[in-house]
Amino acid sequence: MHQVSIVNDMVIRFANVNGTGSASANNMFSKAIFRMGIPVSPKNIFPSNIQGLPTWYEVRINENGYLGRRDGIDLLVGVNAQTQARDIQDVKPGGYFVYDSTKKLHQEYIRDDIHYLGIPMMELSMQHFDHPRQQQLFKNVIYVGALAALINIDLEVLKQIIREQFGKKEKLIPPNFKSLELGYQYVLDHYEYPLNIHLERRDKIGDKIMIEGNMATGLGAIYAGATVAAWYPITPSTSVVKGFETYAKKLRIDPETGKKKYAILQAEDELAAIGMVIGATWNGARSFTATSGPGVSLMSEFIGLAYFAEIPVVLVNVQRGGPSTGMPTRTQQPDILSSAYASHGDTKHILLFPSTPAECFEMTADAFDLADRLQTPIIVMSDLDLGMNSHLSPPLVWDEKRTYDRGKVLNADDLDQIEKYGRYLDVDDDGICYRTIPGTHPTKGSFFTRGTSRDEYAKYTEDGAVYVRIVDRILKKWETAKKYVPTPEMYQEQNSSTDGILFFGTTTYAALEAMDLLKQQGINLDAIRIKALPFNQHVVDFVKAHKRVFVIEQNRDGQFRSLLVNELEIPPAQLVPVLNYDGMPITADAIMQKILSNLPEPANHKSKVL
Amino acid sequence: MTFIKPKFRHPLLPKNKIGYYKADYEGAISTLCAGCGHDSISGAIVQACFELSIEPHKIAKVSGIGCSSKTPTYFLGKSHGFNSVHGRMPSITTGANMANRDLIYLGVSGDGDTASIGMGQFVHVIRRNLNMVYIVMNNGCYGLTKGQDSATADFGSISKAGSINPFEAIDLVGLSLELGATFVARSFSGDKTQLVPLIKAAISHPGFAFLDVLSPCVTFNNNKGSTKSYDFVRDHMEATATIDLVPEEEEITVAYPEGSTTSVSLHDGSTIQLQKLAPDWNPTDRRSAFNNLQSAKAKGEILTGLLYINPESQDMHELVETVPSPLNSLQEKDLCPGPEALDKINDSFR
């Protein structure tokens, strides 16, 4: 097999057993590449289990910055005997299978189109470490050391990461160094190195950071001034509140009393979690909850109450594979419709679609302003891929001039100026009314919040005309919202094709790569990334300007496409679904193939080179 | 029948210590059935808040769904209220209380709203010892949907239509005692002399105060054979003690025969004074409360009054260690760490 050198462009997968300490070794591997200035994107493919089941960690390295998932494994580190047969099949022809040669490989696993690199990881570990737990843990570091030699990772970068990681447990530093060197030296002694696929230092990271979306979301809530976080544990959203707590403990403790300037409430279920959020925001605090699809289903009744009674709510939906319990540890974008129209009766909700951790931070913070401004639920639509995987992201930004927009809230002085206060009076003709917080004024401004129909003065009514007036006024707010929500991102100064692609959230990574791949084939597509529902005029204009728009999303039923059809009354035939819903993040290749199969007539494309 | 509540009040009617008339604590005119027990409870709430001289806007009324949950419209018209969704009043109150610990939270629920659809939230709010008053207006049936048995309907109780309830009742008082509620009482809508001081004591209690108030449904469950009718409850009531709440600055003036009284001091300095009817009952001992409850049940009696109080109660804010000032009063400068701190955070992810 003749080998061409491939630099800084590869997919490496680690096949591990969950609960064996592989995560920290794998993270160390990704971080080292990041610190070598090379764009990198790791993804955990993990089971819904605590210990003993297979788990994979897949790392795409691409110096051009294409960091969506890519099919085809160039190098697989297989340290899970359970999955070895399948893992070997997953390596692409010409690729490498690195394995623990302490045990001999089964003959039937041998393929003649890939390379086998045996490292006696467990044997080396047992020779140098006494304790079984240590032997297990350091085995992982040994393969990182071997990889350092095989693909050219700077050993000093790895050592620095170890020093930082074990700054407080210094005695763990030498055995980690030792393990790295054991793996490294073994490769030096037994194989030619580096492999044809390898790394070279670059300077392509700039000021970017590597962070999980959920951590950034939690930080967004800290910066936006959330004081009450109510939640019920559910994968993949759990680390949102954990992120909030991590930073609240650092940044929100009153130095004088040692008491907390926040409350984290682990509720009995998702119904209670959102009830607590509604109670807290009704009472003037900023509050949020984080959940996933099943949680949104359970919260639906309360979401309707918040919509109809006009109470601010920030809800983070970290989506996972559905329906029902579905694939709890796999990614999808399957809650578009159930979130947009959550609850019975006529309801629709503002959705935000972050695609990077920086946007998780920014949009979560924005969600609090929007919720207060528009007095309605705001749902931040993240997903497992974005939330639970580390992503290369622009740094988190907080403009020092930024101030909280608490919306239309009357204080005691304001109330004194008002003859008769009406909670649901549309004074400013924008659909948004003035609210009061309990306890504000001894005699003015109190009202009864209810999920039943009521008039402008919050008084119960079953008068049909009044009901229509109120629900139509709430719809006016939906129009007002279009001015406040983030506008879509366009990827061209001017439209230049008859076809366009439309996407949102984590689909962005693969969609942009697919766009470039098609461009290399002479197919030019215009692109738009949606950041929010309600859709504003930019979305309408983009769709109108194209004969066909490919709507790329990660669910079976093309839910976003349905949403576009429903909200904008677009003829369905104009929107072509491009879907992926196997639980793995969508790939550029899959998008490209689907689009190509829909382009029978190349002449349709102005820029196509014939 | 009129739907307009007269605003005229006699000028010589008494004001309370902060200058409010009792009328200042009233709400809109009730639309419940004439003779409904719930209206009497609303009246007792008005009386208790008036006597305690609470500023009306310092109270938040919270309820779920059902006849009982409609009542907050009929009392404390100057207080904010929240009629939420069925069985979910505790979570709304929990969030509200976390946002502002300085208000008084008055939760009103029914037996359907608490013992069936809301059981999950009920038991968990007890666990957290949220500082609130939780009143169940207990009539053993679903009124708004025309009188179906609820989960508190007693075994063998006969409905208006003549069917006999084949299921065991959930006793909310026994349950809340078991779960460690720090204030547990039962009363009867028709006994204002007992109910008003109980509500006052519940408001003064720093923690979860549970009041199960038997409140007959005149339309669907006041028939012969019902164990939640006016007649049945009156005939079977047995009280632990007569109760009086003495505010901090007032002297205890009522004299009782020695040995028959007991008093419990509350955090706010007030005192609950009890004229005991059962000699072996100790209001601060849960076991004693259990025993009395069980023996009353065995005798076919309904035990009312204050059953248990934990004078050492620490409310949820103490448990989760929040700052003394209400969280909703914290300003941007208290909450937002600013761009410099974010630079450092960004660095930690490189």
Q: For the largest beta sheet of chain A, what order do the strands appear in spatially?
A: 11-10-12-13-15-14-23
CATH class of chain B reads: Alpha Beta
Biggest sheet of chain B, strands in spatial order? Answer: 2-1-3-4-8-7-13-9
Looking at the overall shape, the CATH architecture of the largest domain in chain A is: 3-Layer(aba) Sandwich
Number of strands of chain A: 25
Query: At the fourth CATH level, what is the homologous superfamily of chain B?
Result: Thiamin diphosphate (ThDP)-binding fold, Pyr/PP domains
Please indicate the percent range of residues of chain A in DSSP E strands (runs of 2 or more).
Answer: 15-25%
- Low-confidence spans of chain A: pLDDT under 50, at least 5 residues? 606-610
SSE topology string of chain B: HEHEHEHHEEEHEHEHEEEEHEHHH
Level-1 CATH class name of the largest domain in chain A? Alpha Beta
Largest sheet of chain B: 8 strands, mixed
β-sheet strand percentage of chain B: 15-25%
Structural class of chain A: alpha/beta
* Annotation field: number of helices of chain B: 12
Structural class of chain B: alpha/beta
Helix % of chain B is: 25-40%
Largest sheet of chain A, described in full? Answer: 7 strands, mixed
Shape of chain A: globular
User: In CATH, what is the homologous superfamily of the largest domain in chain A?
Assistant: Pyruvate-ferredoxin oxidoreductase, PFOR, domain III
Report the helical percentage of chain A.
25-40%
Number of strands of chain B: 13
Structure, explained:
The complex is a heterodimer of chains A (610) and B (350). Chain A is an alpha/beta fold and 610 residues long. Chain A folds into four domains: 6-198, Pyruvate-ferredoxin oxidoreductase, PFOR, domain III (Pyruvate-ferredoxin Oxidoreductase, domain 3), CATH 3.40.920; 213-393, Thiamin diphosphate (ThDP)-binding fold, Pyr/PP domains (Rossmann fold); 409-471, no CATH class; 489-604, 3-Layer(aba) Sandwich (Rossmann fold), CATH 3.40.50.920. Helix content of chain A is 38%, strand content 19%. In chain A, the strands form six sheets. Chain A has a seven-stranded mixed beta sheet, with helices on both faces. Chain A has a six-stranded mixed beta sheet with strand order 3-4-2-5-6-7. In chain A, strands 20-22-21-24-25 form a five-stranded mixed beta sheet, sandwiched between helices. Residues 606-610 of chain A have low confidence and may be disordered. Chain B contains twelve helices and 13 strands. In chain B, α1 (37-51) crosses α7. The model of chain B has no long low-confidence stretch (mean pLDDT 92). Chains A and B meet through β9, α7, β11, α9 and α10 of A and β2, α3, α5, α11 and α12 of B. β19 of chain A pairs parallel with β2 (80-83) of chain B.
